[in-house]
Amino acid sequence: MNLKKRLFLVNFATVALPLAITVLLAFAYLFFLGRHTAADLSLDRYRQLSAIKYEFFYNRHSLLQEQPEAIERESKQGELLERLDKINGELVILKNGQLLFSSREFSPIDLAKLLQNGRGLGNNEEILIDNVSFLVQAIELPYRDGSLAQVILLAPLQGSGADLGNFLWLLGITFLLSFLVVNFFTSQQLSKAILKPISNLQVAAGEISKGNLQYQIVEEGDREIQELCRDWEKMRIKLTELIHNQLKYEDNRKMLIGSISHDLKTPVTSIKGYVEGILDGVAGSPEKIEKYLKTISRKAEQVDRLIDDLVLFSKLDLKQIPFQMERTNIGAYLHRCLAENRPELARVKVLFRFTNELKQDRFVLLDREQMNRVIMNILDNSQKYLYQGQGEIHVLLRETKTSVIIEFRDNGCGIKEKDLPHVFERFYRADHARTGIKGSGLGLAISKQIVEGNNGRIWAVSPPAGGTAIMISLGKL
After folding, report:
1. Structural domains of the chain, ranges and CATH numbers in brackets
2. Does the model's pTM come out above 0.90?
3. How far are the Cα atoms of 11, 366, 455 from residue 376, in angstroms, in the given order?
4. Which of 108-115's residues contact partners 24+ apart within 8 Å by CB, and which partners?
5. Which of 33, 304, 331, 440 is the most exposed place for a label (fewest CB within 10 A)?
6. pLDDT, tens digit, for every residue of 424-454?
């Protein structure tokens, strides 16, 4: 159930149920009186009672506004009788217990009844005179000299009737009590459906603010509350992931700083040593000085390449290098890129082959310049791990239903199975000693960033025949 519907039903029930209970009680009360008493419960009966009470109220108000002496005048008595005539009423005026005026003849016993009822001044009393039921109201008017006048208003009632005032009081009290009971139960239900889930959310917020991100939030309550709980749970999970990633990034940052320090320290130490050798006169001949200077130059170039790779990797990682995607014939493009690298591979005596297994021209979207860097990085990384004089690199181009696959396979020392998932991490080397292999350690990490930026995928495998194979998958157009 949604919250809007629940609130509507609660508000409706809070009013409708007490009203229904009151109406049922009214019918039950009237039914009981009708079956077990001679009371007249008709609508005309209550209209008559309403008219009598109105006239009694009007005449009482009129008398209290004037001086008590006014009731002794015939004009005032006639005015009262004229008003009472609307309800077939009678008028009796007493002064100090003596009869001053009576609109009809009453026996001494009847007057005693009227005087006795007159003691409850201000109340409507019902008495029986000559087998006729009268509704009576007595009004007390004190004179300035201490005398006391009593004006008694009478109105005949047709049959015996229930007291309308008591009946209305009964209905009012019934409605009030049923309203309180229904409101109590609906409040309990509303609290269970709304306030309890919100209270649980408040507890969860307190736990999360304390750093307890393992506190799970259960979906409960109405639909809107459940959606709120679901959003809070998603927020908790996302916050947990963000903190986990933050910790991971912090560990990577520490590792990056350590790796950079290591890779920079070696060439810088060499440069420092050769410079000190020149300054101390160790290089005593021009030939030796030239040798030292050439070594210093190579080490400086190594530092420069490392810095360039670091800058490029950082820009790729921060998505600061836009890719210029172009529709490219992958077979022709790959043949051209590999042709540019053949002389360098031949110089280091690496046997190089390229096999295009595509049946027809296939086109992909890629950034040609950046993808060329990927190819150079992979070839450079492969030839570093080849056996001297026996190195071989084989590049294959094939296709699947949705993509083209570029495979760079070498016959080098290979990569252990446990190291395969990590070869594209920055500064990662499977030999862990980090010695004997030149380079920044960022080549494959940069290649991964570029391939993924070209909507592709790159991974490494160890073929059964040995060596390593680097695979690149690009979507076909």
Report:
1. 38-161 (3.30.450.20), 323-475 (3.30.565.10)
2. no
3. 75, 16, 19
4. 114/138, 114/152, 114/154, 115/150
5. 304
6. 876 665 554 334 445 556 778 888 988 998 9
